[in-house]
Structure formats: C-alpha cells, structure tokens
Fold Ubiquinol-cytochrome c reductase iron-sulfur subunit.
Amino acid sequence: MMDSQRRTWLIATGAATCVAGVATAVPFVESMEPSAKAKAEGGPIEVDISQLRPGEKMTILWRGQPVWFLRRTPQMLASLNITQSLVADPLSKRTQFPTPPWAQNQWRSIKPEYLVVVGICTHLGCSPVDRFTPGPQPSLPSDWQGGFLCPCHGSIFDLAARVFKNMPAPDNLVVPPYHYVNDRKILLGEHKA
C-alpha cells in the first residue's frame, strides 16, 4: 500500500506535467495556422466588402498580386452597355487568360454591383490606374465612360475590366476565383459552384 504523502507528490507531479505539456502544445498547434503573409501568398482569404461605398475601390494583396474590389454605381453599370461594342472580348470568351464561366457576362462578376479582378495588365504586367470619371481626359477617348488606363503602353479597360479593341493588352484583366460567404464577405481564392 502507498503512503498518502507519496500519492500526493505523484498526483502533483502528474498534474504539473500535464500543465507543462498543454503549455508547450498550444503555441506549437497555433504555429501550424497559416500566417497572414502565407494566406496572402496563396491560400484563400476572406475579404470584408461591407465598408465599400458605391463608386469606391479597394485593393487586397493576394498571391503577390493586387486584387481590386470595385463597387459599381448604377451609372457605372449602365456605361457597360455603351462600351459593349468597343471592347475586344465583351463576354470574356478568349482562352489565353481564361475567365470562369460564371464571369463570362457583361459585368464579369457574380453580382453586377461588385467587380473583382487582378489589377495587372495582360500586356506586360503593369498596374493600370483608375480613371472612373467620365468625359474627355488626356490619353483617353473623348467619349470616355470611365474605367482603367495602363499608363505604360496606353491600354484602356472599361468598368468591367474589359480591354478596348486595338490596344497593346491582348486580353481583359483576370478574374480570380472567389465566392460570396455572405452579403458582407467574399472568399478570394476559391470558387464554390
């Protein structure tokens, strides 16, 4: 039979060992969670679009590339009817930079209001700049409806990121895989059928 003092020491030692094991395991297990940098470099990331007001754009770095989230106004969406005949690939059917079937439409997105594209020109990898204000402007057509201008070689894109005809860029801006988690959040990097 074991004396009570020895049993107390064994229980105390066992409990201390368990506490030390848990204290060691928790940081180790937490370290297995991908860092924000690792998520930005490849894994799907959740993007909160709830703060975007109509006409605003935000940029998120994903896989080392800028991804644009543009909340289009009704006027911006209406401009796509005007540019439809001016763009090289209006329904994104070209295959050099394949567009997912769910974005092969006039607005190139799941929901017309929100555009999600990789902000890199398909010509030489420059990043186009916003030119949302309609009307005549330097380096743009006199009947400009709003969109994007690649300042390096002059390619222009409409508000669905579709390249205009006869531009250096061979294709529309790339639509990455994504889906809506809910009305406030998009999961970038994964499409749910």
In short: The chain has a mean pLDDT of 84.
